[in-house]
Specification:
With 518 residues, the chain is mainly alpha-helical. Helix content is 62%, strand content 6%. α5 (58-70) runs parallel beside α10 (128-145) and α15 (261-278) runs parallel beside α20.
Length: 518
């Protein structure tokens, strides 16, 4: 299940990568005409409408992107299957179709059960959750049927041509189930969203805490659909980017579920990176500083936090919990102080600048002040806890382990040698590794460490990592993979391997796929 969630999480990066374009177009439009929807400038109207074309159709983008990303071969036929599934679900679950199938009079139904009618009216081009479900159906249809051979008289529909047809059948079955289940799901999500909306700033803080806490499982994506998009009517990202003034209420203002992430991603996490770099063992400081600087810059400029968060997420879960708590506090304070900002991709400097051009922004200077405070908090808290709890952060050997490593052990080829000496030798080999070689060389060394092409079941990538599943975990040579000069290695499941590459991951993955011969 964890492997499947991880794969779904990385597939969501495909459509999310399009959203910065919408933010850029809208930001430029509001920069030209900050008072409205481009009424005084045709150029501003053009840019704002172009940005809206993306935001108004996020469901379609997620259906296509998730299907393409989740299919093992990332083939275009899977994307088409995702689109077919989405169009089928959207039509079958539209209020008109539901009323017709149930023999209901539309006006009488709307008057008798407005909540259920509202649930089905949310099924449309902008419904991200239905888009994700459609993408999953399309991707699974591709994996199962793209090599299917039909009898000769139906041969034209064999193989990849069969995939969209099967996806449509899947969607028809899903629509029959959702016709009864969707109102229940919608009611639960709407109640949860309304509950946190009613709490105002406190609810925003709870959301911020849960958002970070769920990242290791990938379930934060489901949580984000409730608050960031138009699943149950909150729709925070489009409301902010589209300057939706009519959505402001006593307990809600567009941007309140986004603004508090800016102080964390631009300042807090870099503060944590500084603390971890300083607490690294002396012999490792040069390497760890380089790693932390790269991660801090990615977080500050673009809001991509994976390089930093995954550096301590599993090695020091207690620090990650502290990180989640601090994020919740930041989101709460930003909402409480009425500092509102939004983003199209993530809460980095680029989106901060674009957000500053939006008429919906408010008190953004407070976010900078908060950021400086959170930089100090992260630095001081992380540094103190690393020492107090003797945590094995990147490049740091806990004191307890150093004590245990003084024991002498027997080795087959060297006689008696200390564990500490052996550990230092391994660390030296890792420090000598380099990523300065070609992408092809790096990909080849990783593939050799995985046991060769025949041992690789699936391969994909996200923002910074190769995501792989293998047939036989025993054939994976972690030392050989590390010798390729990669930033790190994570094994979230028995057959799952994630190799941390960095922002150049796509180029390495392209070479990796060539070597696989797929």
């Amino acid at each position: 299940m964890k492997e499947k969630l991880q794969r779904l999480g990385q597939s969501l990066m495909q459509p999310v990568a399009v959203m910065p374009l919408a933010a850029l177009l809208l930001g430029l439009g509001y920069l030209i005409d900050p008072d409205g929807w481009g009424a005084s400038s045709p150029i501003a109207a053009f840019l704002i409408s172009a940005g809206g074309a993306i935001l108004d159709n996020l469901g379609i983008l997620f259906a296509v992107g998730v299907a393409f990303g989740i299919a093992k071969e990332n083939h275009g036929a899977s994307a088409l299957a995702g689109l077919v599934a989405f169009l089928t679900l959207s039509k079958m679950l539209s209020p008109d179709t539901v009323a017709q199938l149930r023999s209901l009079d539309m006006e009488a139904w709307q008057a008798a059960d407005p909540f259920q009618y509202s649930a089905f009216s949310k099924i449309g081009n902008g419904n991200v959750l239905i888009g994700i479900l459609s993408g999953i159906l399309g991707g699974k249809a591709y994996d199962k049927f793209h090599e299917t051979r039909l009898p000769d008289f139906l041969a034209f529909f064999s193989g990849r041509r069969l995939v969209p047809i099967i996806a449509s059948v899947y969607a028809l079955i899903a629509s029959l189930i959702l016709m009864f289940l969707w109102p229940v799901i919608y009611s639960a999500l709407a109640s949860f969203g309304a509950f946190l909306l009613g709490l105002g700033a406190k609810g925003a803080g709870i959301y911020g805490f849960a958002n970070r806490l769920l990242i290791p499982t990938g379930l934060h994506h489901a949580l984000n659909q409730v608050f960031w998009f138009d699943l149950v009517g909150v729709n925070d990202i489009p409301n902010f980017l589209n300057n939706a003034q009519d959505t402001i209420t006593a307990t809600y203002h567009p941007g309140m579920y986004q603004a508090g992430f800016f102080p964390i991603m631009m300042f807090g996490l870099p503060g944590a990176a500084l603390a971890m770099a300083q607490r690294a063992d002396e012999k490792n400081k040069k390497t760890i500083k380089a790693l932390m600087i790269a991660g801090a810059l990615a977080s500050f400029l673009t809001g991509v936090t994976e390089p930093l968060e995954f550096a301590f997420m599993f090695a020091a879960p207690q620090l990650y919990f502290v990180h989640a708590v601090l994020t919740g506090i930041s989101v709460f304070l930003a909402a409480k102080l009425q500092a509102f900002a939004g983003f199209g991709f993530s809460a980095g400097l680029i989106d901060f600048f674009l957000s500053s051009q939006n008429p919906m922004r408010n008190n953004m200077l407070i976010l900078i002040i908060m950021g400086l405070v959170f930089f100090a908090l992260y630095y001081l808290i992380f540094r103190a806890l690393i020492d107090a709890w003797d945590i094995a952060t990147p490049g740091r050997t806990p004191k307890s382990q150093k004590t245990n490593d003084s024991r002498v052990i027997e080795t087959e080829d060297q006689g008696r040698v200390s564990t500490a000496d052996k550990s230092e030798a391994e660390e030296r080999r890792e420090q000598q590794a380099t990523v300065s070689g070609s992408y092809a060389d790096t990909a080849r060394e990783i593939l050799e460490g995985l046991g060769g092409p025949e041992n690789v079941d699936t391969s994909s990538y996200c923002t910074t990592r190769l995501r792989l599943t293998v047939n036989d975990p025993a054939k994976v040579d972690e030392e050989k993979i590390k010798a390729a000069g990669v930033a790190g290695l994570i094994k979230p499941g028995p057959k799952a391997v994630q190799v941390i590459i960095g922002p150049q991951v796509q180029a390495v993955h392209d070479e990796f796929v060539k070597l696989l011969g797929k």
